[in-house]
Amino acid sequence: MSTPALEQNRKKAILLIHQGKKLFMGGKTYEIKQQGFLLMKQGCIELNQYSKEEPQEDYKSLAKQKTYQYYCELEQMKQYLLSKVEFAKDQQNIIQDKNLKNQNQIIENQNQRINIDNIIIKEKLNVFWEDIAGLEQAKQSLKEAVILPLQHPNLFQGTLKPWTGILLYGPPGTGKTFLAKACATESHGTTFISVSSADLISKYSGESEKSIKELFQLARSKKPSIIFIDEVDSLASDRESSGSSDNLKGVKNQLLIEFQGIGSNNDQVLILGATNLPWAIDSAIRRRFEQRIYIPLPDYKGRFYLIQNQLRKTPNCLTLDQMKELANKLDGYSGSDINNLIRDASLEQLRILQKATHFKRVQIQNQMKYTVCSASDPQAEKITMKSIEKGQIFVPEILYDDFLAVLPKCKPSVSKGDLEKYEDWTQQFGQKG
Ligand SMILES: Nc1ncnc2c1ncn2[C@@H]1O[C@H](COP(=O)(O)OP(=O)(O)OP(=O)(O)O)[C@@H](O)[C@H]1O
Ligand SMILES: [Mg+2]
């Protein structure tokens, strides 16, 4: 069983990863992006360490998958940074030092009481229902719970009540958080509150319970509202688990009280949870999630939709047949694995540019640009990418061969054994998304 100390390490690692990702995605400057990269890297190292020490097989295998998934993302972040500028080494060292100091500060801050301003999502997330590949049942349930009661409140009277708790569960990278984002985008007029266990769990006794209480008070005062709790298993793990510290037990009980709406009215408050470990959730809390929806790996149609959607945003030479072939080859890949693979393939042409020793000038849309050529080309100039001015390099479109080149190293992150566990749990407690 996981010990509280190990659980703490896992949370710290996840926190670093989330913080890093957020900095990287939202960072306006190269420096901030790099800080995000370094934070995430530290988080990956710590998650990897945790996965080695965790004695319980479920948790161990999941941590391994997640570590792999995050390392793939990290590699792409690295490539992105490398493709932008070659950064001076000493500058990197300065940032790294500064970062290590910042990390402790960030964790310290996260351990303070919940910061209300940070959890209400005000900005547009711009994820729409049509961005989601497949998962029709999940989309339908969410619409029933969120959109319909708002737009047609008169339909929900008497015995017809909207869902108040929905749990999305399944392997990593299948779109659970993505679905929640679509919910936030599409539910105009609803307050969307997004929290993760890291936001709610404080190292100070009693503080986490207060945070949960405040969270629900906030949701009730701003209804209609959705509380999205990512990685809900960390808050609501099985009572009997010897890994639960007293602090966690208090959190779980408080969550149960709030969830049941004892002494308060939870009308028009939807609790949306997401987890990779549905079996780790306490049975009393599980019951409060009236809809438990399995978010599986994408099927052929879903994979094809994802590939087509992603490639629409990137210049490429793939034919429809090649996209179909790719969708066939990617059986067993999660949505996020597929995105990673596409990003990796997109970098292939950049890698070629980085290694190239000969370029020639060509005219592209009335502009002179440099393109890679062989040394024997009569117009070849012996130069490298570094000596060509920014904006003068022609980046070729992605080829189908680029995908074939990266396929052997981009493996699916979810194993067959894990899928069986989700299927079993679905048979017992869930429904297909
Ligand atoms: N069905 C899908 N449709 C569209 N995009 C998807 C889908 N599944 C995954 N993705 C892509 O993969 C990325 C990761 O998905 P997301 O973060 O929602 O996974 P998750 O299920 O929450 O994983 P975890 O359990 O690890 O938190 C998304 O940002 C999205 O781009
Ligand atoms: Mg998620």
Structural summary, described in words:
This protein is an alpha/beta fold and 433 residues long. The protein has three domains: 4-111, no CATH class; 116-296, P-loop containing nucleotide triphosphate hydrolases (Rossmann fold, 3-Layer(aba) Sandwich), CATH 3.40.50.300; 301-416, Helicase, Ruva Protein, domain 3. The chain is built from 16 helices and nine strands. The strands form two sheets. The chain has a six-stranded parallel β-sheet with strand order 2-3-4-1-5-9, with helices on both faces. It has a three-stranded antiparallel β-sheet with strand order 7-6-8, with no helix packed on it. The longest helix has 28 residues, at 57-84. The protein is globular and about 80 Å long. The protein starts with a helix and ends with a strand. Magnesium ion binds next to helix 7. Magnesium ion (MG) binds at residues 176-177, 230, 274. Pfam families: AAA (PF00004), AAA_lid_3 (PF17862), Vps4_C (PF09336).
